[in-house]
Amino acid sequence: MTHRPDVVIVGGGVVGVCTAYALVERGVRTTLLERGEVCSGASFGNGGWILASLSMPIPGPGVIRHALPWLLDLESPLYIKPRPSLELARWLWRFRACCNSAAKLRSFRLRRALALASLERHAELAKIDGVESGFAQRGILMAFASQAALRDAARDVALLEAEGGIARALSPEALRARIPALTTQLAGGFEFPVDAHLRPDTFVRSLAREAERRGLAIERDTEVLEIEWSRRAPIRFHTTRGSFTADEGVLAAGAWTAELARKIGVRLPIEPAKGYSVSVDRPDDYPDLPVSLNEAEVVVTPMGSRLRFAGTLELAGLDMRVSMRRVGAIRRAVRTYLPGLPSPVREEIWRGLRPLSPDDLPILGRPAGTSGLIVASGHGMDGMALGPITGELIAQLALGEAPRFDLAPFSPERF
Ligand SMILES: Cc1cc2nc3c(=O)[nH]c(=O)nc-3n(C[C@H](O)[C@H](O)[C@H](O)COP(=O)(O)OP(=O)(O)OC[C@H]3O[C@@H](n4cnc5c(N)ncnc54)[C@H](O)[C@@H]3O)c2cc1C
Question: N or C: the chain end with fewer CB closer than 10 Å?
């Protein structure tokens, strides 16, 4: 009989929970360590987009020139808090190296392949009794206020179509026919009929419950403080609530993964990229169709009786403080693009830290020189979309099977 390793996963976000589910589904004894409640990090209040069509990486040609005026503007969609950090300087240097057409195309193809596989898996998971994700594959819209931004996006759309993707150009009238609250001052937009959306917190928490039903042990309020690792002994996690030993340890701690890996001398270029969401009661006549307010980099997602506006990206380290100026920028974008919305009712503000790698590809695999340790992080803006396929790939790695995708482009050693 083949040996099935015991696995301990650190982190109860979408990546940790999808990995746990994939493992228990394969009959592997699995424990998940989460320092708070399951789904209390970036996976809780995000935009819920399951994007497989225009899954462009953040770095690309012209991105630095385009973003430069924003960098020190506290209300811009992208803000870098000035701070003396060698890690940040190295990260920015690597990011800059990816700002060219060849890197963008390569990254787009890799991201899209993962995202399409993950979308399929999402659809399967949504059918499981007990998983309440509100998963809806109704497509998504992108709305542009300026002709220049619309023209730029048309180039990406042409790239998508060349790769077999589907997009429809929409006139301002066609956009407003779908979402009547949109402004009349639009240049136009696109519809991507393949993409989906869901309610992230209910998805992750109900999947965790299903995994528990299938044997997953979840240790809540259990923070990993130290990791003990050697070639001869199984990996050991020392936590606020005792120690846990496993044949395989999976680091899926989102924006905190780099900090954890550093404890055993593994360096991972993951920058916490803070974003915010504002959720309100959804007006009765607001359609169940997500839209991005493109120049403002805000996505609008209906989630049952609620409507969520999510966006902004702030590189400020592991800092959970709320900047009301950035929340204000989201509210202003909503008023500008969606003047037809009534005043917000029961507003809820949330922030989260995306784990962002400099090439905007996830980091999946075993760091060199280690055994019994797998990294599953760096999903940036797309962790909700990529969670299910990540879970499958990490389970395959842990079991010593050939992963469904070549993991070389996602290796922790690529930097
Ligand atoms: C505003 C915003 C909007 C977004 N919109 C979308 C979207 O529309 N679609 C999409 O695909 N993605 C979106 N994302 C990105 C997505 O939310 C992330 O990529 C994803 O949630 C990352 O999941 P994770 O499991 O890696 O990390 P997390 O969800 O952050 O989970 C990590 C977990 O590890 C735990 N942890 C950390 N350290 C320790 C420790 N020492 N011991 C024990 N536990 C620990 C944390 O408590 C946390 O629960 C958005 C993000 C933001 C901020």
Answer: N
